[in-house]
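User: Hey, quick favor. My workstation is busy. Could you predict this chain's structure for me?
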Amino acid sequence: MAAMERPRPIIELGDVALRRWRGQDDFAAAHKLIEESLDHLCPWEPWVAGHSEEHTRDFLAKSASKWANGDVYNYAITKDGAFVGMCQTYRGAEPNGRFMGYWLHPAAIGQGIATRATAALATEMFTLPAVRYLEIAHDSANTSSAAVPRRLGFTEVRRERATPPAAPAGSGIEVVWRLNRPVPSAHGTLRP
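Assistant: No problem, here it is.
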């Protein structure tokens, strides 16, 4: 049986990098990042209601096994070596699709970091032969999250009722965006 293809554990983007979480070694930095971002995340991320030290430890403990089996690839987003956010890709409903998610510390917003990180992760995921498309979903009221897929050339493909628990400030309607794997053109260049 062939080894499963996985993304690189570190993706360098100059001053910004994506780095695979290193289990409990990252606990203090991950917990602090979440703690400092709670007010910013609370309106849009239902998981924030259950945030605790135990939740952060559990997240980090499960990250290694989820990475190993290909279910979830979780990354810390760093800028100049400091933790400024998280991004991930996880299995979609279909075997050739994956969902993407991202969030930033409030001090990192407005610098293009989420767009750069998401673009880098999308590029990395398309190096894996099994990945044919990526999707991003967000509540329709979260216009900041909508800016990222729009900038990166994703296409809105549907709107649907959010699966509970819904975001506290949300409309209850999720917008789903899709980006298909680029394919070679007749001239040998890639096109979406």
